[in-house]
Amino acid sequence: MSKEIISTDQAPQAIGTYSQAVKVGSTVYLSGQIPLVPDTMEIVEGDIEARIHRVFQNLQAVCKAAGGDLSDIVKLNVFLTDLGNFPVVNKVMAEYFAEPYPARAAIGVAALPKDAGVEMDGVMELG
C-alpha cells in the first residue's frame, strides 16, 4: 500500500526529520504537535490552557489537510510535563470533541521540544 505525505502551512512546519502526517489507505498518522504558532514558529503566548488550545488548532489543521476533522481521530496521545495539567486538557478537549470520544492516553514526560509543556499526536480513520 502506498503512503501519502500530508502537509499544510496552516500548522507548524516540521522541526525535525518527520512529516506532519502520513496517510496509508484510510488511516492517517498525525505527528506530535506542540503549541507553535504556524506563522512565527514560536510557542503561543499564555498559560497552559492557551497552549493546549493551540495544539488542538494545529491538529485540526493537519486533519483538514488530510481530508478529515478532529472527530475522525480514533486515538489521541497527550504528553504533559506536568500531569497536574490533566484537568485542563479535559476541559479544553471538551471544546473540540463530542462523544463518542477517541481512545486516549496521557503520559507524563520529563521534557518536550521548545519547553512546550504539552504535545499531542494521534491516529485518524477516514470513512
- The percent range for helix content is 10-25%
Give the uncertain stretches in residue-range form: none
Count of strand segments = 6
The CATH architecture can be given as 2-Layer Sandwich
Oligomer: single chain
- How large a portion of the residues is in β-strands, by DSSP E? 25-35%
Gross morphology: globular
The span between the termini is: 17 Å
Assigned CATH class? Alpha Beta
Average pLDDT reading: 97
Query: What's the structural domain tally?
Result: 1
Tally of helical segments? 2
Q: List the strand order in the largest sheet.
A: 1-2-3-6-4-5
Report what the structure shows.
The protein contains 2 helices and 6 strands; from the N terminus they run E-E-E-H-E-H-E-E. Helix 1 packs across helix 2. It has one domain (3-125): 60s Ribosomal Protein L30, Chain: A, CATH 3.30.1330. It has a 6-stranded mixed sheet, with helices on one face. By secondary structure, it is of the alpha+beta class. It has helices at 48-65, 86-96, and strands spanning 3-6, 21-24, 27-33, 73-80, 103-108, 118-125.
Q: What's the arrangement of secondary structure elements?
A:
Blueprint: E1 3-6, E2 21-24, E3 27-33, H1 48-65, E4 73-80, H2 86-96, E5 103-108, E6 118-125
Parallel strand pairs: 4-5
Antiparallel strand pairs: 1-2, 2-3, 3-6, 4-6
Helix pairs in contact: 1-2
Properties at a glance:
127 residues, alpha+beta, 60s Ribosomal Protein L30, Chain: A, six-stranded mixed sheet, 2 helices, globular
